TrEMBL record:
<dbReference type="GO" id="GO:0033617">
    <property type="term" value="P:mitochondrial respiratory chain complex IV assembly"/>
</dbReference>
<dbReference type="GO" id="GO:0051082">
    <property type="term" value="F:unfolded protein binding"/>
</dbReference>
<dbReference type="InterPro" id="IPR018625">
    <property type="entry name" value="Pet100"/>
</dbReference>
<keyword id="KW-0809">Transit peptide</keyword>
<keyword id="KW-0472">Membrane</keyword>
<protein>
    <recommendedName>
        <fullName>Protein PET100, mitochondrial</fullName>
    </recommendedName>
</protein>
<feature type="region of interest" description="Disordered">
    <location>
        <begin position="92"/>
        <end position="114"/>
    </location>
</feature>
<dbReference type="Pfam" id="PF09803">
    <property type="entry name" value="Pet100"/>
</dbReference>
<keyword id="KW-1133">Transmembrane helix</keyword>
<comment type="similarity">
    <text>Belongs to the PET100 family.</text>
</comment>
<keyword id="KW-0496">Mitochondrion</keyword>
<keyword id="KW-0812">Transmembrane</keyword>
<dbReference type="GO" id="GO:0005743">
    <property type="term" value="C:mitochondrial inner membrane"/>
</dbReference>
<feature type="transmembrane region" description="Helical">
    <location>
        <begin position="21"/>
        <end position="37"/>
    </location>
</feature>
Amino acid sequence: MGFIRTFIARVTRTQLETAKFGFYLLSPIMVMYYVGLDTDKKFNLPGFWPDPSTLNQIPKEPHEIQAEIARIRRARLEKRRRLEEKARELGITEDDDVDVDNQIPENQESLEDGVVRETTHLV
């Protein structure tokens, strides 16, 4: 304990300020150095990133692009067939949807050029 007390008593203000400056300057540098070293070993979480072989691969060659477009079209056609079959089972037809869209409300009338005019009926 006596050694520390004599050491502190011998340190001048200039030496103390120089030591503080060195500490303030070197502390962030040492932290950055520690964090930057071997980040793969320190911060690696096994299984965090997916395996590259399981990811979707973007086609780059022309024949790969054509094959992908054909696959998408087949999938879209199959989905359309399933939806049409389900609509037939439920009794929904395309004509039903068109009639609903083309109906004019009771308070409007259609003119020859396709313009709809609102009418008021006094009873």
